[in-house]
């Protein structure tokens, strides 16, 4: 007799407050043990030095992660002006120093204005971007000169919260809200370049990924200490919190789960989460060729 497969649990999301000193993959590995499944992923990598919101998907909810990743993100960070590093953050060796003592807050704000809105950003060479199948950071560590192409990103807001002079350096506590794919390290670097003194990131905390905020985030140590199922946001609730909701009747639900299409969604936002008459989450759809077509079915 063929061995019966275990049914896949619906799963859900966990909003983890990632500690410093761990990679995002390290957190995923811990969550696999806590959740008792290998089907775990994360939405948006955080560097080891960074802390804050890391959205983890468990079981079927892993299929939401690509869409969660594409949402806006928010960060609190500290930028040091007057010192450049090879990694554009505090983990890399210093490559250049300059006296930032004469820089005014007005000059900083002028430079920040030029880095706000729709910009072309060159990612840090020490990043996880792949070049011919190999990570950029691996090529740099092997001694290669790596030049990455600029890519469009949007900086919705870039605000200075504190302005602190420390010897020859100038430390800025800033808050940034931006599109996915933005490198805050690169913002720190480019701000330093614009002011003529160099700069790098000394601290980074992600405060939001889409609708998921640091107020919801649970420290990894607390999740490990509880020993309970870590999923705190069931699949249906995760979909409702992330996407525009559309409710359908029984006939439409039956058609959708069998690969059929629906009349176009009224929402201009894509994708849209579709829920059945019993409140269950059925699928993500997007408007294409005059119909609302499923891009991921969850039943």
Automatic annotation (TrEMBL):
Domain tRNA pseudouridine synthase II TruB subfamily 2 C-terminal span(s) in chain numbering: 243-298
Residue ranges constituting the Pseudouridine synthase II N-terminal domain according to the UniProt record: 32-184
InterPro entries from the UniProt entry: PsdUridine_synth_cat_dom_sf, PsdUridine_synth_N, PUA-like_sf, PUA_sf, tRNA_psdUridine_synth_fam2_C, tRNA_psdUridine_synth_TruB, TruB_C
NCBIfam families given in the database record: TruB (TIGR00431)
Enzyme kind, highest EC tier: isomerase
Keyword list, A-Z: Isomerase, tRNA processing
UniProt key word tRNA processing: yes
Protein name (record): tRNA pseudouridine synthase B
Highest taxon in the source lineage: Bacteria
Organism: Fodinicola feengrottensis
Family under the similarity heading: Belongs to the pseudouridine synthase TruB family. Type 1 subfamily.
Function statement: Responsible for synthesis of pseudouridine from uracil-55 in the psi GC loop of transfer RNAs.
Catalytic site: 47 (nucleophile)
Enzyme Commission code: 5.4.99.25
Reactions catalysed: uridine(55) in tRNA = pseudouridine(55) in tRNA
Record domain tRNA pseudouridylate synthase B C-terminal: where: 185-225
